[in-house]
């Protein structure tokens, strides 16, 4: 009986994921978003290997050059090649966004799963902590901490992860409340299985759809938050930069016709954030059981 139940539990999610994958592939906007993200990952991580530039030292003989010739997107106020800087800044923006989104999702997933599974006063206390955290804007906390510590990329990842886990925790808790009363979880508990085993073996694997969708939106939000903070001069410090820092550095050139200092990083932020949101929407629709026909 146990073997049959285990086979059924495993087979149904596998078939469901295959169906979800097909549904996602039929969503043209989501697929386009995935293509945009892949292209930007190649641009930022493979591009510097093919288009090598010096993003550390200044060259005052090459300042504010218009696009063309040796500098396809021109240069900035200290002589950095703008195309190379777009790759360099994008690498930091994407790394911070992906890593902090993953960290926030992991923390939120564990917190929400424990709260939902435990129930009672444990759930009440843990979720009041979440409610209190949500009441304080994440951007405000990030600005205050960044102003005090002047964090690098690693610091931004940790700070963003610690202020962005609240929403995923509520989503996973809601999913856990429905899953903990399923037959396979009750059977495990009746046969002496531990609470940790129930969470890790059944609750979390069957919450993958919710977790993946939440992680996708967390990455988009993290990239935007990093851009906000860097635009205000509180992000990674020179000579490092990200797309928000590039926008901030090029702000004074906006009235001088040097569009290449503003448009490329601005478009990059918009495209990547919209792409991750499109992927998140596509995944949410693909995993939505009510939409399956």
Question: Please, could you describe this protein's structure?
Answer:
- The protein is mainly α and 293 residues long.
- It is built from 13 helices and no strands.
- α4 crosses α12 (243-250), α9 (183-190) runs antiparallel to α10 (195-203) and α12 packs antiparallel against α13 (263-287).
- It is elongated and about 75 Å long.
- It is 72% helix and 0% strand.
- The chain has helices at residues 2-25, 28-45, 47-50, 82-118, 120-135, 138-149, 153-163, 166-179, 183-190, 195-203, 208-231, 243-250, 263-287.
- Residues 90-280 form the ABC transmembrane type-1 domain.
- It holds the Pfam family OppC_N.
- Keywords: Cell membrane, Membrane, Transmembrane, Transmembrane helix, Transport.
- This is ABC transporter permease.
- Its main location: membrane.
Layout of secondary structure:
Blueprint: H1 2-25, H2 28-45, H3 47-50, H4 82-118, H5 120-135, H6 138-149, H7 153-163, H8 166-179, H9 183-190, H10 195-203, H11 208-231, H12 243-250, H13 263-287
Helix pairs in contact: 1-13, 2-4, 2-13, 4-5, 4-7, 4-8, 4-11, 4-12, 5-8, 6-7, 8-11, 9-10, 11-12, 11-13, 12-13
